[in-house]
Amino acid sequence: MPDSQLTPEAFGSKPWGSRLLGPADEKSGIRRVRIQLLLTIPLLGANLIGIAVAIVLIGFVLPGPTIFTLRLLPLNAIAAPLYAALALVIGTLWGTMSGLRTLRWATDPDHVPTEAEQRAAVRVPRRLVRQQAWLWFGGAAVLSLLYGLADPALIPKIVLGIGFSAIVVCANSYLIAEFALRAVTARVLDAAPGRAIHSIGVFGRTMLMWLLGSAVPVALSMVVALLSLTGFDVSTERMAVCVLTLGGATLVFGMLLMMQASAATVAPIRGVRRALRQVEGGDLNVAVTVYDGTELGELQSGFNRMVHGLREREQIRDLFGRHVGHDVAVAAIGSNPQLGGQECEAAALFIDIIGSTTMTATRAATEIVAILNEFFAIVVDEVERQGGLVNKFEGDAALAVFGAPAPLPDAAGAALACARAIRTRLDAHTSDFSAAIGVAAGRVVAGNVGAHQRYEFTVIGDAVNEAARLCELAKQDPSLLLSSASTVAAADADEATRWKLGESVTLRGRTQRTELARPRTN
Q1: What DSSP character marks residue 2?
Q2: Quick check: 402 and 325 in contact, CB under 8 A?
Q3: What digits encode the pLDDT tens for the residues 81-120?
Q4: Which of 443, 459, 475, 465 lies closest to 390, judged by CA?
Q5: Residues paired with 443 in a beta bridge
Q6: Distance between CA atoms of 55 and 265, rounded to whole angstroms?
Q7: What is the pLDDT of residues 463-479, one digit of tens each?
Q8: Is the separation of the CB atoms in 189 and 290 below 8 Å?
Q9: Rounded to an integer, what distance in angstroms lies between the CA atom of residue 356 and that of residue 368?
Q10: What is the pLDDT, as a whole number, of residue 492?
């Protein structure tokens, strides 16, 4: 199947690696809403969790003065909640709405994105991270200043608590956007297969997970330990709370983040693996959607190129087999064909339409082509049924060979049985034309004849010439089918009993007499 005929079903039920991203044939309006929800809800949840983590760290875990005092009540009850609420609203509207406005072209399934639209689309995850960073680190600057005016000793707690949450939320925002925009990334990669997405890559994604799940919590624990060593008032109980809390965060959030990163890495591999199983089962009408901008996307596109090459090779093999015969094609593909041939025992069947010159002069060319196709369809069907090869189509005639290039245990019997079957089908199937058949068997040379630049498989020998002369003689014979007695003698007993021997004649161009054989009529 050509690539243009691959249907969405060919990509499976999860074209982008997750059922959350919808099917390939989803309506554009529904997909836009889906992308909006996949961006908004996870980002909102990540920010809320980040705010909760910052409150827990600043209020209960990190050492230093407590923030739960009456003189800090205005900051705790008004300033901090107000900034958090504004940041959530601004981040949601600014991030997701502006991102989707950039991707407005994706609502048209027939639109091919321009180069500018492609560049803008691949920048959306990084732009979203920058927006989140501005809001979080801006909050760290504003709140540390406000709390620092009330008590300078609170500044390290505010900076560390908000900074820790900011890093986690910003990195997670990148992964959320990368996941939600897989369908858009696939459109970009499809429009420009050679475009580099400039993503962080598999290595970068793994290091990011290490940073969030292990490095940041451990680094925060080390900072707390360093503060205690530099004279900062850190009690044993507070140090234990820090270690237990940050250790628990490392275990829980580290596992969740690694699951997220593993899912993003495994999804393209699973898609390629499923497609490989289909290819192993003989289905070459398969492709995977290229939606990953990392090295895994190169794996996906490489698989598609490989299958495209296999489809082309199979089409060439099929076309080659139709032109020269399946056995010849298999032999040519499986070896290094050379000029020349080798002797072998084979049988030849020659068939020719009677009165083709008159028929051509009295009928339209299209009608002649239809008659020839009908005629050759019967010939090819019966020849292949008996294990033979139609070696040549010569206008209104055909030469079939049995026993070359693939050997047959009873080449003569197969040729005789094929001749009888063709004769029976022609007599019953059509009255538009009549054809004569000649069959002979003997030693022939089978091989490639021609030049090094262009050659064809053929058989040369007395048996081939004899079959052609018997076909010529059969045009004047009532049976329209003649064989040599030696061919009948070479066939197995079951086939030989279906033939009767006749007179001996000297065929045109031959010096020795040939005893004829005809099929029995009863």
Answers
A1: -
A2: no
A3: 998 888 888 887 777 777 777 777 776 777 778 878 777 7
A4: 459
A5: 345
A6: 33
A7: 999 999 999 999 999 99
A8: yes
A9: 9
A10: 93
